[in-house]
Amino acid sequence: MIGYVMLGTNDPARARAFYEPLLAQIGFRVNKTYTDDRRTWFRGESGPMLVLTAPYDEKAANHGNGTMVALNALSPEVIRKVHADALAAGASDEGAPRDHGGGFYSAYFRDLDGNKICVFKMG
Questions:
Q1: Which pLDDT score is estimated for 117?
Q2: CB of 109 within 8 A of CB of 91?
Q3: Which of 11, 34, 51, 107 could bond to 97 as cystine, CB 3.0-4.6 Å?
């Protein structure tokens, strides 16, 4: 089972400002116990955490081709709002919200550092 996922960022403050309002819509809050000026930990009610971090080796952060983080949402309405809010905050569109069939509804965007994010609902 996954405990947490880390996404690299070259600007931790900018990354936190981008993600905090988006993740709040799907039940994630900043875990202030572990958060500092280099990284922000987000925790939901249960399940894995998401961490935004400047790389430990102090080299530039970059996104991986084929790497994606998928975040579970409660409804298609929340998915549409998170996607729209992400784009309004500077994200690039990687796939508009839609039903893919079989009860899988999702939307995709790249954050300000190029990390690919999916917001989805199954069933």
A1: 97
A2: yes
A3: 107
